[in-house]
Structure formats: structure tokens, C-alpha cells
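Q: My labmate handed me this sequence with no annotations at all. I'd like to see what the chain might look like in three dimensions before we decide whether it's worth expressing. Could you predict it?
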Amino acid sequence: MNKCFILVLISVLMLGSKKPFSPQSETALAYPLEKERIVESIVFIAGVDEGDNTYYSNAKRYFEKQGIPIVDSLYSIDDIIAYVNKAGERHIKFKEINIVSHSNAWLGMSLTTRVNGERITVKSLQHAMATNSIASSRDEFMNDTKVIFHSCGLGENKHLLNQLKHALAAEQVIASPYFNVFGGKYAEHYLAKPYYGYYPTAESEGPAYLAKEFEQEYPNVAIDWFTALKNRQESSFGEAYSFKFNIPVEWEFTFDSVTDIPTLEDKEAIMDWISESPEMAEVIYKLQIPIEKFRWRSTVKGNKLIIKGKTTVLCVLAPILQSNDVNEYQNATVEDPSLYQIL
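A: Here is what I predict for the chain of 343 residues:
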């Protein structure tokens, strides 16, 4: 077999981006230039809503009510750095920068390295910095700045958070290991603890079966899993609910001859073949999702073998309540080290 390449595709949402400093963005910088001006806070809404997910519009509404300047036309870290650098050149420094971006443990951040670039992961950000593909943040503009990421679960990834701190040259970066929820039924912004389950896409055995799997995985967690899996939004105060999303993977192999292509007749044969390949097995291992939780398919096109897998991730969210008052959601205070990773 002449293996020309292995292609791994992880679901990536490429977000369009406008040029920095649109007329709306310029208004945030329209201050006198004679002396340095300290702006208490600014918010970058670094994405656009798709489908029925209103995360970004809910976040924008939340920060608008606080009277904080908002920029919602920049979707890459390169553009955000360029914006802050340009502000600095005009003698404007930000005491606090908020960045709102989708994020999860498998796909990294929706915030990209540059316009039409890759989603931010440790690898993609390191490569962008090493190749000077993104603007360099200037220390004199960021040495007193705190950057807060409103990105679900980002605080769990200390390595990526450190890389972001380095890229931004910030005095401090902050992110929560929990999920950020904006526009909730009972609170405009709160944090929720996630619990995960998986099944082969389009091959669910139903909520009762899945609820039992959650019970086995989290035996000490007092959640009505069946009800949580049935609810797609908050139904009552403090009760858990769930959402789901898919993670696809794909490999493509080229053979010298069609006769060299292995016959993979069923799911078990495909899983066996993947397990015997160090490259493919490593991809599955890094995802930390059991191989049997993927729906596997194989196709042959000419002298190419294509293997595709897709898993559905079930995420149950349990709102974090105050320890001394279960009738109140815990305040999402970024200075609280029990709720946020602070570097």
C-alpha cells in the first residue's frame, strides 16, 4: 500500500470576518489623543449565531445592559490584537478585555488565528506565532490588561490558556472550566457544570438507555438524567438540561492498486483496522471518546479507501447554585478561583 496521505477532518465552523475598525468599531476609539486614556472594559463578540443557538446575541445583550463598548465584527485573534495595538497607538489602553467565543474540549475555540484561518488550539496558535501569521501584541499596550475569555470549558485547558496569554502579552488571562450561559431563563449570565455522554450518530437507543449510561458514568451525581436528556432548555430553576452536537472524523488512503484495498464489511472490521493503525488510533485516543461510540462507514473510490466516523456528544448542563442558598445561581465572579482559572 502506498499511503500518500491521511486526512483527518474535525468539524470546523469557519466564521466570516470583516475588516478591523469598521465605523462601529471606530466609535470605541474616538477619544482625545493628547494623553493616555484608560478604558475600563471592552467586549469582543467573536462569532455569529447559527441556527437556534443564540449564544453570541445573548452575550451581546448582556454586556450592552452593562454599558460596555462592544465590537462584534472581529472573529480572529489577529484582528483583535491589531485593534488593541491601534488603540494603543492612539493612547488608549484597556484595563479589561472580554472575548466571547464558542469553545469545547475537542474542537478548540471558534475564535480563529486569522481571517479564514484555523480554529484556535494549542497547535494552531503556536504555529501562527512561529510563522508570524498573526500580529504581535505590544507589551506596553497590554502589560496592565486583564483578558477574560467567555468560552465554555476553556479554563480546563491550562496549556491553551497559557499560550493565549503569551500571544496577547496580557498581564492576566481568565477563563472558567465550566460552561458560560447567557440569556438564561432565571439569570442573564451563569455558569454550569457539564457532564458528557456519547452515541453513534443516528443510532441512539433512546433517552432511557442513555440515562442509565450517565448513571453508570456519574454514580455520585444527583441528577435526574432521563429528565435532563429530554429537556433542551431550562424547564425549572436550577434543574439540569442538555444539548448535543456531532464530531466527525475522516481518513483517506491511496493504494497502488485496487486489489490492495482491504475489505471492511462491517463496523467491527473498520474498528479493528483503525485500532491497528497508530495514526488513526492516536486520533481517537486524543478525542477521549470510545471508538464504539462512533458510527463507522467505509467507501472505495477508485484506488482510494475513505473511512468516516461520527459521534453525537450529549452534554448535560447543571447550573451552579450558591453553596449557602440553593435558591440563587452562583454569581459568575471572575475573581473567584473556584469558578475561574486565573493565570
